[in-house]
Amino acid sequence: MNKTVPDTALNPRDFIETIEHDVRRADAYILLEFLTRISGYEPVMWGKTLIGFGQYHYKYDSGREGDSLRIGFSPRKANLVVYIMPGYFDFSDELAKLGKHKLGKSCLYINKLADIDMDVLEDICRQSLDIMAKKYPL
Predict the structure, then answer these.
(1) Is residue 16 part of a domain?
(2) Residue 70: CATH number of its domain
(3) Which CA distances in Å does 18 have to 47, 66, 134?
(4) Which one of 6, 82, 116, 117 is CB 3.0 to 4.6 Å from 108, fit for a cystine?
């Protein structure tokens, strides 16, 4: 069972208002609108600091199963983190054109949106959502 679950009692906009860093807060609002438009899902808080769009149910061969967000982001103190659930391993061409960033398995770390090409990010996000729709249809 996932520790991070949807929390509809928390409002993503209220959470964003608590971000002290002006640029991070402004970027979070941009990502909120950006991912709402691209995904077609309304934003939902997952835990206290992660904003997710859509969800899916997974079940591993080991028997472990749970629910997770299809795509999302978290405006952390150090950077913005964009989560795509298929991971970033198949996006090397796009990432080469994205701009300044760091990678984790399913995490894209961005200092500020001004450092990246938003059209490239949109392409990555749309491809991610397409992969998820094929792997985990609604």
Answers:
(1) yes
(2) 3.90.1150.200
(3) 15, 29, 36
(4) 82
- Asked if residue 81 is part of any domain, the answer here is yes
Can you read off the two tokens belonging to residue 136?
């985990």
Across the range 112-125, mean pLDDT stands at 98
> What is the spatial distance between Cα 105 and Cα 86, in angstroms, rounded to a whole number?
9
- Which structural domain range is residue 111 located in? 12-135
Alpha helices in the chain (DSSP H): 12-17, 22-39, 92-98, 118-135
Residue 4 lies in a domain: no
Domain membership of residue 1 (yes or no) is no
Q: At what angle do helices 22-39 and 118-135 cross, to 10 degrees?
A: 50
Q: Look at residue 118 and tell me whether its pLDDT is greater than 80.
A: yes
Residues 51/78, Cβ–Cβ less than 8 Å: no
Which has the closest alpha carbon to 126: 70, 75, 73?
A: 70
Kindly report whether the global pTM for this prediction surpasses the value 0.85: yes
pLDDT digits 0-9 by tens, 55-111: 999 888 898 888 999 999 999 999 999 999 888 878 999 999 999 999 988 899 999
